[in-house]
């Protein structure tokens, strides 16, 4: 049974890695991509909140943000509540990156699903709620 569990985990990891590898701009690193998706999913944030979310130190996050600002994928603006705080948000280029990345991922995954037999597709569809439950636990 443990061998089957390991095979399932490895298959899910490989699939997730394959999907993550598709993105709108190949020069964006995995860490930068993660920050862009965090901003897309959670809205504008401070450096501290992004550091906590990504589980990295503030200096490390600052380097990531500097690279994203230089690439015109995020913006930095002073907080309207506290001039000492800086809010990081997606730029139009960052939103385009997210949109194109999602488009590429969806197109690839749809193509892979279309190759399945109807029986295989039913199995995948029935596994989705179970996988979501595991992912959310």
Structural class assignment? mainly alpha
* CATH class identity: Mainly Alpha
What is the domain total for the residues? Answer: 1
Q: Which CATH architecture?
A: Orthogonal Bundle
Amount of beta strand: 5-15%
Can you tell me the CATH superfamily?
Winged helix-like DNA-binding domain superfamily/Winged helix DNA-binding domain
- Major sheet, described briefly? 3 strands, antiparallel
What is the global morphology? elongated
H and E order: HHEHHEEHH
General description of the model:
The protein has 137 residues and is mainly alpha-helical. It has one domain: Orthogonal Bundle (Arc Repressor Mutant, subunit A). The chain contains six helices and three strands, in the order H-H-E-H-H-E-E-H-H. It has helices at 2-20, 30-42, 47-54, 58-70, 92-114, 118-136, and strands spanning 45-46, 74-78, 86-90. It has a three-stranded antiparallel β-sheet with strand order 1-3-2. A hairpin with a 7-residue loop joins strand 2 (74-78) and strand 3. Helix 3 crosses helix 4. The longest helix has 23 residues, at 92-114. The two termini are 21 Å apart. The mean pLDDT is 93.
């Amino acid at each position: 049974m443990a061998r089957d569990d390991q095979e399932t985990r490895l298959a899910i990891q490989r699939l997730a890695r394959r999907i993550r590898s598709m993105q709108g701009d190949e020069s964006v690193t995995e860490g930068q991509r993660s920050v862009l998706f965090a901003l897309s999913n959670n809205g504008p944030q401070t450096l501290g909140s992004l550091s906590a979310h990504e589980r990295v130190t503030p200096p490390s996050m600052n380097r990531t943000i500097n690279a994203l600002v230089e690439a015109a994928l995020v913006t930095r603006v002073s907080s309207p509540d506290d001039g000492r705080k800086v809010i990081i948000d997606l730029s139009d280029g960052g939103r385009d990156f997210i949109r194109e990345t999602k488009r590429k991922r969806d197109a690839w995954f749809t193509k892979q699903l279309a190759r399945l037999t109807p029986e295989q597709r039913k199995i995948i569809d029935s596994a989705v709620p179970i996988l979501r439950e595991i992912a959310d636990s």
